[in-house]
């Protein structure tokens, strides 16, 4: 009997230790936490990224507009920006842009844009008309990305940053539009384009922001046509003219 009891004693187990229960509970908690964070991240990431795109686009547009305004405030001669050529009768025949002055304006405006973009990336928003929040470039309350009106401003702020990719592209173009009877409006437009990378937690996306800002307009008056009707030149009927 003593031999039989000794064999059974090998299969006896005492109660599970508290440390073992605590360890298993901690491991289960970590697994559930990671799974929960993954589910939450997958559900809010599209909304958060879309919000980041919109805010980054607004920020970049404001920066480019401010850069153009600051360059215009430095002053430039509109008449010297456009080269006007007249025909033998003294009428305006062609209007071309002054390449030298155009290049100077483009270069200085591009410098402004790059300066302001770098300023925003570093979190220094003074002078740009954009409030700084918690030292981040942009931030959105966690509750807002849940699309729940009751939770709109609840929760910690999620940072949204961006960084410039490549160079800022700036150019000046002419837009010619009719402006009344035989009158033409020539508009000088600054075309700007910058590629940015939106950065949110665990994800990034590249976007391109374009902005056109008029910087000057000139009205050119030509000869009034012999026949005019309803905003277009009317060619007279030959038969009626001959009769």
From TrEMBL:
Gene field: yunB
Cross-referenced InterPro entries: Sporulation_prot_YunB
Matches recorded under NCBIfam families: spo_yunB
Name assigned to this protein: Sporulation protein YunB
Highest taxon, organism lineage: Bacteria
């Amino acid at each position: 009997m003593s031999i039989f009891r000794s064999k059974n004693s090998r299969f006896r187990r005492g109660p599970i230790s508290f440390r073992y229960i605590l360890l298993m509970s901690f491991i289960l908690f970590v697994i559930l936490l990671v799974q929960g964070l993954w589910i939450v991240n997958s559900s809010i990431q599209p909304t958060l990224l879309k919000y980041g795109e919109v805010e980054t686009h607004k920020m970049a547009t404001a920066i480019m507009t401010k850069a153009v305004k600051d360059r215009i405030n430095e002053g430039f001669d509109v008449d010297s920006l456009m080269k006007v050529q007249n025909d033998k009768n003294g009428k305006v025949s062609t209007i071309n842009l002054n390449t030298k002055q155009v290049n100077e304006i483009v270069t200085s405006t591009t410098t402004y844009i790059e300066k302001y973009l770098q300023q925003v990336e570093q979190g220094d928003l003074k002078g740009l008309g954009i409030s700084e929040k918690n030292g981040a470039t942009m931030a959105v309350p966690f509750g807002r990305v849940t699309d729940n009106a009751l939770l709109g401003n609840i929760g910690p702020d999620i940072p949204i940053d961006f960084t410039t990719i490549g160079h800022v592209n700036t150019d000046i173009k002419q837009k010619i539009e009719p402006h009344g009877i035989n009158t033409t409006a020539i508009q000088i437009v600054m075309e700007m384009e910058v590629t940015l990378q939106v950065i949110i937690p665990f994800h990034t996306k590249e976007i391109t922001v374009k902005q056109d800002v008029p910087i000057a307009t000139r009205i050119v008056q030509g000869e009034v046509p012999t026949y005019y009707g309803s905003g277009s030149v009317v060619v007279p009927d030959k038969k009626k003219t001959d009769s």
